[in-house]
Amino acid sequence: MAQLSVPSDRIAAMLAAIRDEVEPVVTLTHLLHLCRDEHRVLWERSGDTRTVRKVTVLVNKVAEELPLPGTTAVLEPPVRRALVVAFDQADDIPPVLIARALAELIDECYGHTFAHWFQRRSPYQPGVGDPVPLDSPDLREVTTMRSTSPPWRLAHRLDETRHVRLAGEWVVQFRVVFDYSLFDTLAGVVTADTVVATCHPNGSLGELDLTQGTQEGRFPVRPRDLGRQRTEIDRLVARATAAGASIVVLPELSVTEGLAMGLREWVQRPDGPRVLVAGSYHRQTGTDQAPGRRRNTAIAWVRGHEQPLTHDKYSPADRPVVEDIQPDGWPELRIYPTVDGWHLTIAICRDLLNPQAGNALSEAGANLILVPAMSETLMPFGGPVAHLVGANQAFIAVANNPGEWADGTDRIAARPARALFGHPGLGQQSRLVQPRDSGPGVALLNVRSAAITWLSEPPLTPVPFAVGADDIPQPPSRPTWLSQLLARAGTSGTSARRAGRPVWLRPAAVLVLLSDGPDGPRVLLTERAADLKDYPSELVFPGGALDQCDSGDPVAAALREAQEEVGLDPHCVQVIGLLAPMALPRSGFLVDPVLAWSADPLLSGSVNLAEVAALRHIPLRELAEWATRPSAGAPPHPPGVTAETIFSDPAPLGRMTATVIDQLLGMLPQRQTVLRTVVKERS
């Protein structure tokens, strides 16, 4: 049915509606509809100081009729009359400006009652133009890190207030359902002490059964050895909960329906997780005589809730395994609001990559998103995750499986990231977890600090590489000394020669910042986070790749990176010059060391804990002495670094870092013993 096109008719219809309406959410919705319809006038006149003053006077008269907070959840007759009178006294003021101000007033006064209104209608499925609940947990009580947006939202939209947003066309693309069945059960699901874990039981596709189905599509995909899979999952969940995890996510297609149902016992244990997303599984509805649709279903268990949470995948995979499922034509996004403002939802792998789905999740206010995945790469997930984190200050955990993508003909396996986390405190909003090996393990995200940890687990038993691997001739057994040699040389022995292709290096820069101390010159070093792909848990200079904003200047890049990583104020730094560039083929960088001096290094910003585990000012002389002492008397860590904050590696300095320090010591007036021992051992 066509909308009323004349503004005066729309305003008259709105006043007639709110004159007798007792529900604050409904009245607020009428006011926001006028704001949406007359958004051009609202934008043009909202900056007029004279008009704003008049609107404030009218709104204050309405505020005088409002009840005391908490005394009533409905609009009493005096309040309704005051709302209508405010428009009658508008004179030359555009009514849409009054509607906007009154919407914010009702939201502020009655916002605490909105959740109950939505809860009474659960499961609530909004249509276009209907109100959508917007709950915002106080992140200051959850994380000590600075969030990536203002206190409540990035943008000030015309069709929303702090607690309500009007639904758009996105509710036509998806069946969006707000399910309040866990409203009180999930109270406190995320706190400052919460740890989110992803568990990864499989190392390669050889551990999954891919033999059934047609050549064009595969169904069902399932673990090959169910007994081993259950044992491995139990072992990993136990490891995760022992590390403090209360939310655990398993990967896509890592279970069967029976295995997933059996995992309910974990949320019934006093030492188990509070929420367990038991991965997903292939299932076919109907009977053998009349088979129904093929589905990929995720299942989750919540402590204190008897029934499982289920969600069907609607975006089949097309690589590296063609997934032969038949999703519904109208996919559903189910949101579980909680009393403290969290909007929990489950998405399966590529569902998160659908731009329309990402927009729907963002519009619905999803801020706790748990994702089982099975993908050869998680790189495309970074954009949607960053968008949701930035828009809703969301926490996101993606659990990927398996650790290697290989078949019986390809002996060189691609190693994808095992997990991806989204956190408002991360500098890039998201972080991939890429351990060095493809074995089972657990990835942990600490909500308070955004610290990410990988806990590796040795596999239970050796597993055949893939289907058909038994036909491959096995090499003769190696002597012990040869295995030790290969291990120390860091070579896998899978290829006799390197591919003859050029290596392209990306320009980068590090800041070699010197300052003076009681023992002579000191250098600023950072300890890299243990979960980073490149140089994890090593002492290095702050730095990184050149961005477009650096205009090709390594000095600008080094200062910018130091400010982002450790909060160093660039104004306290005096640049001396550039040292010889160094090529790092393993990570693909050509690095310019920028030598600089500061009489008093000022750290005016915060340390990015997602990249930097610790910050150290270490005397060069002590670094040289530590590196050249006999092994029997060498301390386990360099001076100024404690065992509690570092790791057990006896030589934690990065190779390039040790080389630069070697050069610095060689250039000092009083030449000291240098770090060639470290460089030789690492070369």
From TrEMBL:
<dbReference type="Pfam" id="PF00293">
    <property type="entry name" value="NUDIX"/>
</dbReference>
<dbReference type="InterPro" id="IPR015797">
    <property type="entry name" value="NUDIX_hydrolase-like_dom_sf"/>
</dbReference>
<dbReference type="GO" id="GO:0010945">
    <property type="term" value="F:coenzyme A diphosphatase activity"/>
</dbReference>
<dbReference type="GO" id="GO:0046872">
    <property type="term" value="F:metal ion binding"/>
</dbReference>
<keyword id="KW-0479">Metal-binding</keyword>
<dbReference type="InterPro" id="IPR036526">
    <property type="entry name" value="C-N_Hydrolase_sf"/>
</dbReference>
<keyword id="KW-0460">Magnesium</keyword>
<protein>
    <recommendedName>
        <fullName>Nudix hydrolase domain-containing protein</fullName>
    </recommendedName>
</protein>
<dbReference type="InterPro" id="IPR045121">
    <property type="entry name" value="CoAse"/>
</dbReference>
<keyword id="KW-0378">Hydrolase</keyword>
<feature type="domain" description="Nudix hydrolase">
    <location>
        <begin position="504"/>
        <end position="643"/>
    </location>
</feature>
<dbReference type="InterPro" id="IPR000086">
    <property type="entry name" value="NUDIX_hydrolase_dom"/>
</dbReference>
<keyword id="KW-0464">Manganese</keyword>
